[in-house]
Amino acid sequence: MPSTSATSLPGSPTVDAIMVDRRAKSFTTRSIKKDSKLAALKLALSMVDLTTLEGKDSPEKVRSLCRKAVRPWERDEEILGERLPHVAAVCVYPSMVPTAAELLSGTGVNVASVATGFPSGQYPLDIRLNDVRDAVKGGADEIDMVINRGAFLSGRYQQVADEIRAVCDACGDAHLKVILETGELVTYDNVRRASDIAISCVRPGDFIKTSTGKVSPAATMPVTLVMLEAIRDAYLDANIKIGMKPAGGIRTAKQAWHYLCMVNETLGEGWLSPDWFRFGASSLLNDLLRSMQKLKTGGYAAGYDFSDA
């Protein structure tokens, strides 16, 4: 694991906000040929992390979500003539990890869990680390941690780095996704600095993630582009490959296409895989299914034709 001593925190370039906004907008003008649309929709589906993070979560709700994750559309073979892929992961609170792990064992769908005092990241570090260990012990394959934005915005970058490293150690073999909560970081320069710090502390194959979904704005294309460029630079400079997860606010198949184009043109086809790119957007899944039906039949299904979970 890269060192995060006080003398080795990475420097970060200044972000040209005007150019970031302009380039991010340019991806929304890309067109996808009809023959490629279904493949793009299926790829996006395979990258979805289905999530439930509510106070009213119950084992029954998690079981329903897991069934949807494994078989997103029960009529896929009837309408499309083929079986659709499963989603990438189901993300739940640590208390629900054993339920999800039991249902998803052997399916290929990972169990992800938020931890570290989600969504604030303000709990004492020992409590946050125990949160991680409990989730991994319960069967979590992935941990979504949130950084302490108060520490970051106060300039305590070393504290942020040390905490990410400690969480990474607590994960054991589970993959780590570091949530920056970009809506609270305010500027692109802060997003880039937080991205660089996180990348310097995690292992190859771990992720950086935009948002908890509890703060607005959540994922935006310019913010995601800034983070993708940090990933690209780490790969070019040190051959360190890190994944990316925009989360929150991505609701339509058309938006998913735009993000896939941005990933392809910024990082290359090697990142167009659930191993390296995810959508944290449960509401996106049904629009992907509706769009697939439109391609096959010429008409959109009603939203209520697909289960919420």
Describe this structure in words.
With 309 residues, this protein is an alpha/beta fold. The protein has one domain (17-299): TIM Barrel. The chain is 47% helix and 9% strand. The protein has a seven-stranded parallel sheet. Helix 9 (188-201) links the parallel strand 5 and strand 6.
Query: Major β-sheet, in short?
Result: 7 strands, parallel
Structural class by secondary-structure content: alpha/beta
Strand-residue fraction?
5-15%
* Structural domain tally: 1
Gyration radius over CA: 19 Å
Q: What would you call the shape? A: globular
> Treating each run of at least 4 consecutive H or I residues as one helix, how many helices?
12
H-E order:
HHEHHEHEHEHHEHEHEHH
- The CATH level-2 architecture is identified as Alpha-Beta Barrel
Counting DSSP E segments of at least 2 residues, the number of strands comes to 7
CATH homology superfamily: Aldolase class I
* pLDDT < 50 runs, ≥5 residues: 1-7
CATH topology grouping: TIM Barrel
Report the average pLDDT across residues.
Answer: 94
Strand order of the largest sheet: 1-2-3-4-5-6-7
C-alpha termini separation:
38 Å
Characterize the quaternary organization of these chains: single chain
